[in-house]
Amino acid sequence: MNKFEYGTGHLTASIALAIASGKVKAHLSSETIRRILASSAFVNEIVDNHQTVYGINTGFGPLCDTKISIEDTRKLQHNILKSHSVGVGKPIPKEIAKLMLITKVHSLSQGYSGISLTTLERIIWHIDQDHIPLVPEKGSVGASGDLAPLSHLFLPLIGLGEVESEGKIIPAKQLLNKHQLEPINLGPKEGLALINGTQFILSFATQAVHRLQQALETADLIGALSLEGLMGSVRPFDARLHQLRPFPGCQNVAYRLSTLLNNSEILAAHTNCDRVQDPYSLRCMPQVHGASRQAWFHLKELTEIELNSVTDNPIIFNATETISGGNFHGQPLAIPLDYATVAAAELGNIADRRCYLMLEGRFGLPKLLIEDAGLNSGFMIPQYTAAALVTENKTLCFPASADSIPTSLGQEDHVSMGSISGRKLHQVLDNLEYIQAIELLYAIQAIDFRRPLKSSPILEACHDFVRESVSFAAEDRVFANDINQLHQLISQGKLLAFSNNFAHQTGLKLHQDEKFRLY
Predict the structure, then answer these.
(1) Is 54 one of the annotated active-site residues of the chain?
(2) Average pLDDT, the chain
(3) What is the Cα–Cα distance from 118 to 112, expressed in whole angstroms?
């Protein structure tokens, strides 16, 4: 797919990310335009007929009973953007802000929001030309829509706020002047339609679907390398065992590990050894990685529902039927985001335990993964960093969705805090990528002590690929440099891309169940 139709196409996390990266071009179809024009006409008819409808000719929140004159309905929409732009903190990543624009356009284009075609076309111009508004990271409670971040996102429409354009941060007014564009004169309902919705939460979820999937794939790959370094057993990954407890995520991980380890000389060399069973961090990888994989799949499913939903308020069905409901409430995503945060943290937790195993001097490995321990501290201290990151992740696992603080003078008396859930998940994923870099550093060092035995073809290829960036350590050095090198391979998806390309070229199928793939 290289084209997508806003409002009528089925949006997925991968398509949204592809639009954001410029790989897919999104546009308004003739059918979408028809819906947009009809919905906008309904709003104008409501105003002309003096019907009282929330947010069109009334105040907002606790001011919902305050009538607004026809003459002031437009000013009302400009005021709401200005008054609700109260976000604080550093700007969110540019890709997240761009995803907010994309997901908002798709929601508004379905024809239930009363937005004008002119306004939507201006937003699409921002997307296509990569002029992305600056949005502060904090200020949303995730219920009345992501009010503060969405207000900042759309300030440039009325000539306010700032944008990132061509690598520079400039005032929105300057951008409009440069391109000889006038600020948008928002019509009735438009300001409210723009800032009501879950697009802040949703965009963090969309990117998290990709990042967590990448972390899961990486966990299996590095876990298999660690198992080889520790001369662990492949028997706990036997399909017959997992048929007796058939969680799909666990079965998929067991299949992946068995496939990654197939035809390993290292495995064959200790088939009849006297070890009865491995520690949990090795033999329970299908259960632990698999549980996290199922949490990812749940997040992916619910994110996809939200990507194709209308989440503003009120909903305009026609000129005589509007419903003021709660589609803007972030709870349906807040809870799975918190669940996914625990799932991501657990990947780091078990990875740290495998690191610790490789330092103990057991199973034929030298203590601290270095031959001259004493004079050299070897790989003792990177595990301290992993332990610190794992503990930090644990502190981030408290579910934000379990809390609620009433706002808007009690009118909005239960909120989701899903915006915090989304941001916390990414903090955990940031830490996880460093934990995985440390485990990878340990695993390839451990495998080098198994020579001349070799691992499976795919794991050997991955080992050699990693060794192009980080060499074997015979003595102490600044291991932070190694960690940062491996972090780049992991966070930028280079290690996964290499392993997937190798599998494709050799005809290796790395997934038992294709539903656990993002693309």
Answers:
(1) yes
(2) 94
(3) 16
